């Protein structure tokens, strides 16, 4: 009967909001909070004082601002939040399925925190306050450029002129601009004419590159301890370690196949598609045809 099919049942699991959706929603909520407090209660700058990043705030113990500053934006400039949200959305929709929810969110948080630390180190005596998610966007884009260095990307320059470039060139140009801005303006105690926190961008880029270079697909394991008592070498000459038996799924049994597919999908959800072994990818491709047969 039609009602017996899995996709017609009321108990069929619905897709949950992704981490990317929650992240964008949190940034929008922070911006709305700024508008409400500033426009309705006439408390301009109060949200930025408690949750924006500043050297004076860190000296006062506001360490949470190393993360919360990324959820605030310039309430008088709508392009500030729109530009960052577009970057998070278009880059995140590519990276999140690859990295998994936990790693994607951890990468964003690390880029924001490292960017905040870099900005605070450069501007410790100059003062000022920084808000915005651009350090997180910079970190995400560097990882994207490492995965797809030569894939053409088209974007609107100044939201008007379409330009197509390779990600590696965009990342290099952005790094050079931020290096120049950090050296000629921030380090010298001047305000950048671009209105950017160049040092925060550089910190986010550094966090993204470190993640791709040393964390992604790396196996962090403690070295195994050697046993305190070992057999003499002459007793181990004839002994050969037995190879572990390879586990094979019975493709003829639909229940076993479904259970294995569910396990692989759970692994993709937690660790990303890149964590699958070649055998798991092959089985997932074969399962689509086998499970569709009647």
What does this structure look like?
The protein is mainly α and 294 residues long. It has two domains: 19-215, Up-down Bundle (Rhomboid-like fold); 252-294. 58% of the residues lie in helices and 5% in strands. The protein is built from twelve helices and four strands; from the N terminus they run ααβααααβαββααααα. It has helices at 19-40, 46-51, 55-59, 65-68, 78-99, 101-122, 134-147, 167-186, 198-215, 233-236, 254-271, 278-292, and strands spanning 53-54, 129-130, 153-157, 161-165. Strands 1-2 form a two-stranded antiparallel sheet. Strands 3-4 form a two-stranded antiparallel ribbon.
Concise overview:
58% of the residues lie in helices and 5% in strands. The protein has 294 residues and is mainly α. The two termini are 14 Å apart.
Overall CATH architecture of the largest domain = Up-down Bundle
Total separate domains = 2
Strand content: under 5%
The description of the largest β-sheet is: 2 strands, antiparallel
Keywords summarizing the entry:
294 residues, globular, two-stranded antiparallel sheet, mainly alpha, Rhomboid-like fold, 58% helix, 2 domains, two-stranded antiparallel ribbon
Topology summary:
Blueprint: H1 19-40, H2 46-51, E1 53-54, H3 55-59, H4 65-68, H5 78-99, H6 101-122, E2 129-130, H7 134-147, E3 153-157, E4 161-165, H8 167-186, H9 198-215, H10 233-236, H11 254-271, H12 278-292
Antiparallel strand pairs: 1-2, 3-4
Helix pairs in contact: 1-5, 5-6, 5-7, 6-7, 6-9, 7-8, 7-9, 8-9, 11-12
